[in-house]
Specification:
Structural class of chain A: mainly beta
Strand content of chain A: over 45%
Structural class of chain B: mainly beta
Oligomer: heterodimer
Number of helices of chain B: 0
Strand content of chain B: over 45%
Distance between the termini of chain B: 36 Å
Mean pLDDT of chain A: 92
Shape of chain B: globular
Chain lengths: ~120, ~110
């Protein structure tokens, strides 16, 4: 069974540009989570989508946005890139939310570098 | 303070036991998790423990949970160089009516031969 996949593996952008990161969950999973892992800050929760709806978002500015498609894949968009957005962006998936958090399965991440 | 706190670094010799500690604040946590991240890779679930358990053993891994002190630990017996990685503890924290998995900053484990 294929795991969570993310693309691209690496992304290099300049300040002010926009970045789009993609995630495909494990087949049958409807929940997708996005995390930012910046150096020295650990994992910070960004966004959570379940069955096409945004369920929750972390303490990030509105220029971080995303969506989930009917096939449950997801995009994370970061507008007006800043240098401090340079980080590893991890996507995770889990089965449909049933009122409690299930185990999350992580993808390998997209390394975003902002110059 | 942070919702989930961990020590940042641990160095051990091959063959020794490693103990990684974590404290959390949310007393309603139902599951608590340990994830492992190897260099350049995503996170891999190592083990988890239900909040109604005190201990869970899984081969070389032992998880201890002290609910009174909100303290979680991961013990790795006979630590190997391949265990060198960053270890994250994580637990659900209520946020705007939903549980969100909150991670500690991670403990870097360095195993020397």
């Amino acid at each position: 069974e294929a795991g969570v996949t993310q693309s691209p593996t690496h992304l290099i952008k300049t300040r002010g540009q926009q970045a789009t990161l993609r995630c495909s969950p494990i087949s049958g999973h409807t929940s997708v989570y996005w995390y930012q892992q910046a150096l020295g800050l650990g994992l910070q929760f960004l966004l959570w989508y379940d069955e096409g709806e945004e369920r929750n978002r972390g303490n990030f500015p509105p220029r971080f946005s995303g969506r989930q498609f009917p096939n449950y894949s997801s995009e994370l968009n970061v507008n007006a890139l800043e240098l401090e957005d340079s980080a590893l962006y991890l996507c995770a998936s889990s089965p449909r939310y049933r009122g409690f958090l299930d185990e999350q399965f992580f993808g390998p991440g997209t390394r975003l570098t902002v110059l | 303070g942070e919702d989930v706190e961990q020590s940042l670094f641990l160095s051990v010799r091959e063959g020794d036991s490693s103990v990684i500690n974590c404290t959390y604040t949310d007393s309603s946590s139902t599951y608590l998790y340990w994830y492992k991240q190897e260099p350049g890779a995503g996170l891999q679930l190592l083990t988890y423990i239900f909040s109604n358990m005190d201990m869970k053993q899984d081969q070389r891994l032992t998880v201890l949970l002290n609910k009174k002190d909100k303290h979680l630990s991961l013990r790795i017996a006979d630590t190997q160089t391949g265990d060198s990685a960053i270890y994250f503890c994580a637990g659900p924290i209520m946020n705007s009516g939903y549980s969100t998995l909150t991670f500690g900053k991670g403990t870097m484990l360095l195993v020397s031969p």
